[in-house]
């Protein structure tokens, strides 16, 4: 019978080597731990210096990574901002346009307030307005020029009453309803208004007659050397009894042989509110109407007699 072998298997050798290696590593770890304890007692600041040196090595790499992250983030934000820029610009344009509209509306309201205050200031004058109302509309496509206001007989408005704005004369009431009235504008071809030059150094009196095209023809009473020049202001003279004297009527634009062509100071198309004033001299107006009726009656009688004689 053969004797048993004394060699160990390969598995038991590997186990021994592993155990031995573990002992060696444990011993090295223990030695390193003892050395670290000794160093911490001898040089307490040494671990901090080691960490600082390690950070010096690591920080540049971390800084580069941070710059890359920041750069990529900034690039993405730039792209997103570029994509949003169109919508933001459109929104800003809408806001600016809306703000411009609001400013325009505020300017119009302020302008209307100034005009109303100017008309209300007329109440403190010698002749208090009968009514202050809105200019509803005006004709501008024919030779006849009429205007319409939102006040009538219920407000005390009567035919013949002058109508004006804060700038000057617009016309006079031609027909009056209960709550509205029709105005004969100064620019109508049937409108005639006695006027005088505002410059007192030049005694110039004339008649302002509507030209039918939105302007007024000034005809001088005293023909001769025409003293007018562009820019001269004509005001109401008070003759005829309808209008108070001194109200602005027209500005001379073009000089003619017998007077001038002028534009009205108070444009009905630009008038929002108007004041209806009482007739300046009702007695004079009534007397002129009676005289006109008598003249017409006499003319009718003469015509009748001539017809009878012819028969």
From TrEMBL:
Name of the featured protein: Cell shape-determining protein MreC
InterPro entries xrefs: Cell/Rod_1, Cell/Rod_MreC_2, MreC, MreC_beta-barrel_core
Keyword Transmembrane included in the entry's annotation: yes
UniProt source species: Qipengyuania atrilutea
Pfam families named in the record: MreC
Upper lineage: Bacteria, Pseudomonadati, Pseudomonadota, Alphaproteobacteria, Sphingomonadales
Cellular component aspect of the GO annotation: plasma membrane
Gene3D superfamilies (alphabetical): Rod shape-determining protein MreC, domain 1 (2.40.10.340), Rod shape-determining protein MreC, domain 2 (2.40.10.350)
Domain Rod shape-determining protein MreC beta-barrel core: 139-270
Transmembrane stretches, start-end: 20-42
Similarity comment: Belongs to the MreC family.
Keywords: Cell shape, Membrane, Transmembrane, Transmembrane helix
GO biological process: regulation of cell shape
Renumbered residue ranges of the record's region Disordered: 291-311
